[in-house]
């Protein structure tokens, strides 16, 4: 048993000002507001202005999280950025953020577990802090999905938005902080959600609009059934490992992919709707940024109390899944 816990010291987020509403989408593709809301629960998304690099969102979210933690950039030992939309392969998003927030003492690397990235980063950062290798770790989930969206594909273009969410993870009183983590991968199902980079096989090319070959594609029904099953299982795993029951959980922060997925998992878990954090109506699917953005919104609106038992759970491309049970100590 460590003499300290590992918990969230500060949160921050950034949503671009430009909005894309369902009525905007009605003018772009063959869809309706009613169909989008019924299928996804989404009403509006935030998009980066043309020509603006994605890392600028992460810089703003990072500054806010560090300030919220009562620290300075010089106090940060490590930056982990999670993204599927890096502006460069090198320098990494984490190194760009390090430069622009002037965190001169921090090591930095990017982590890609798609939409599960934030939960993977929490799991990774916890080890660095528990072992004493680092004291303060900044996690920035920075996603510019508008850059990889096919705006002619009505099945996917209704889903995605841009955002960044950040947390500072550090030492807290041992009665608080992370209690259990779980991460897993299902590479045998990776074909059901793809985003090509340097390699573009013919079967991937054929799934996409000409000229939009490097865009997100997914098999909606396969991803849906995996997501409901995987998020249910991942939530149960950390709750049981922590010696708790679903009734002990005060709030679940799921990846905000689709309201039907969230509702399906909640139903299987016999979880009351008021215990599930939902923000997708105002953000769309913002990949790994969805959980830290929701945490920041709920924390700033006093919807999380000290001592609350929280579960964060996500699924994503790879396919990947992960969960984290934490006693809120902020």
CATH topology group of the largest domain: Peroxisomal Thiolase, Chain A, domain 1
Quaternary structure of the protein? single chain
Tally the beta strands.
13
Overall, the morphology is globular
Structural class: alpha/beta
Number of domains: 2
Query: Unreliable stretches, pLDDT < 50, 5 or more residues?
Result: none
The number of helical runs is: 10
Order of helices and strands: EEHHEHEHEHEEEEHEHEHHHEE
Output the CATH homologous superfamily of the largest domain.
Thiolase/Chalcone synthase
Largest sheet: 5 strands, mixed
Radius of gyration over all CA atoms, rounded: 19 Å
The average pLDDT value, as a whole number, equals 96
* CATH top level class name of the largest domain: Alpha Beta
Helix content range of the residues, please?
A: 25-40%
Strand content: 15-25%
CATH architecture of the largest domain: 3-Layer(aba) Sandwich
Distance between the termini: 21 Å
Report strand order across the widest sheet: 1-7-6-4-5
Describe this structure in words.
With 330 residues, this protein is of the alpha/beta class. It folds into two domains: 5-175, Thiolase/Chalcone synthase (Peroxisomal Thiolase, Chain A, domain 1), CATH 3.40.47; 179-327, Thiolase/Chalcone synthase (Peroxisomal Thiolase, Chain A, domain 1, 3-Layer(aba) Sandwich). 32% of the residues lie in helices and 24% in strands. It is built from ten helices and 13 strands. It has helices at 22-28, 33-40, 55-68, 93-101, 117-130, 202-206, 220-241, 259-268, 280-283, 290-300; strands at residues 5-14, 18-21, 44-47, 78-82, 107-111, 137-144, 162-172, 177-185, 193-194, 217-218, 251-254, 309-316, 320-327. The strands form four sheets. The protein has a five-stranded mixed sheet, sandwiched between helices. A four-stranded mixed sheet has the order 8-13-12-11, with helices on both faces. The model has no long low-confidence stretch (mean pLDDT 96).
């Amino acid at each position: 048993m460590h003499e300290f816990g590992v918990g969230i010291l500060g949160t921050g987020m950034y949503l671009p000002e430009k909005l894309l509403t369902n009525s905007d989408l009605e003018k772009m593709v063959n869809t309706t507001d009613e169909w989008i809301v019924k299928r996804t629960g989404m009403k509006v998304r935030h998009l980066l202005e043309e020509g603006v690099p994605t890392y600028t969102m992460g810089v703003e979210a990072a500054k806010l999280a560090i300030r919220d933690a009562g620290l300075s950039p010089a106090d940060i030992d490590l930056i982990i950025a999670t993204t599927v939309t890096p502006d460069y392969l090198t320098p990494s998003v984490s190194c760009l953020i390090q430069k622009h927030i002037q965190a001169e003492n921090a090591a930095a690397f990017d982590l890609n577990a798609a939409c599960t990235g934030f939960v993977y980063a929490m799991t990774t950062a916890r080890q660095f802090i528990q072992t004493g290798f680092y004291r303060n770790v900044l996690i920035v989930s920075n996603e510019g999905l508008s850059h990889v969206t096919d705006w002619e594909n009505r099945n996917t273009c209704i889903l995605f938005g841009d955002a960044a969410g950040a947390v500072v993870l550090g030492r807290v009183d041992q009665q608080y902080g992370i209690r259990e983590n779980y991460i897993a991968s299902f590479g045998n199902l990776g074909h059901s959600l793809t985003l090509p980079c340097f390699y573009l096989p013919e079967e991937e090319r054929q799934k996409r609009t000409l000229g939009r070959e490097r865009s997100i594609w997914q098999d909606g029904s396969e991803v849906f059934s995996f997501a409901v099953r995987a998020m249910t299982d991942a939530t149960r795993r950390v709750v049981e490992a922590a010696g708790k029951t679903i009734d002990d959980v005060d709030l679940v922060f799921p990846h905000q992919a689709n309201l039907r997925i969230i509702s399906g998992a909640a139903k299987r878990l016999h979880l009351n709707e008021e215990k599930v954090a939902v923000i997708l109506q105002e953000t769309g699917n913002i990949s790994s940024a969805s959980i830290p953005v929701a945490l920041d919104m709920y924390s700033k609106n006093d919807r999380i109390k000290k001592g609350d038992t929280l579960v964060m759970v996500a699924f994503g491309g790879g396919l990947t899944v992960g969960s984290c049970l934490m006693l809120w100590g902020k």
